Amino acid sequence: MLKKLVLPIIVFASVATASMTSNITEAFAQDNRIENPNIQTAKTFFAKQPCDVLPKMMDTVKDYEEDLLFLGEGMSFAAQSGQGFMGGMMFFTNQETGTWSMLQLFGDGTACLVMNGRHFKPYSGPKMPTPTAN
Questions:
Q1: Can you tell me the distance from the alpha carbon of 67 to that of 1, in angstroms, rounded to the nearest whole number?
Q2: Residue 105: what are its φ and ψ, rounded to 5°?
Q3: What span, in angstroms and rounded, lies between the C-alpha atoms of 1 and 78?
Q4: DSSP strand pairing (67-77 vs 51-53)
Q5: Which of 6, 67, 74, 128 sits in a 20 to 30 Å window from 33, CA-based?
Q6: pTM, whole model, 2 decimals?
Q7: Cβ proximity of 71 and 89 under 8 Å
Q8: Are 33 and 41 within 8 A, CB to CB?
């Protein structure tokens, strides 16, 4: 029963995320901070992430035939309390179809789908500008 519910939720989240995501270079070009650094565009929002034990979350990655591309460590913050939780990050991609998934794995074995999408491709454009401190 749970497996029947998790997959539609993940597929819905994937479609919704993909439809809201644009090309990163376009996003940087449209970012008001580049043209006018006095305009604040920082955002804080609450997000839902499907979570389960790692083997169950890996089923979704396997459905898209995505392979592990890189690992990292990072922190996520609880929406209600703001408490930070450290976890491992795993980034998977299918370089033929362009789909990708990012999972965060916590010490208790819980894995969460942080984000996923399509149109993955290596960035080969100019180096992104680094903000300067005032």
A1: 27
A2: -110, 125
A3: 27
A4: unpaired
A5: 74
A6: 0.62
A7: yes
A8: yes
Tens of pLDDT, residues 46-101: 778 899 999 999 998 999 999 999 999 999 888 888 899 999 999 999 999 999 99
β-sheet bridge partners, residue 77: 84
CA nearest neighbour of 112 among 57, 72, 44, 30: 57
DSSP assignment string, the chain: -HHHHHHHHHHHHHHHHHHH---HHHHHHH-HHHH-TTS-----------EEEHHHHHHHHHHTT-EEEEEEEEEEE-TTT--EEEEEEEEEEETTTTEEEEEEE-TTSEEEEEEEES------SPPPPPPPP-
Q: In one letter, which amino acid is 98?
A: G
Q: Please tell me the total number of residues recorded for the chain in this structure.
A: 134
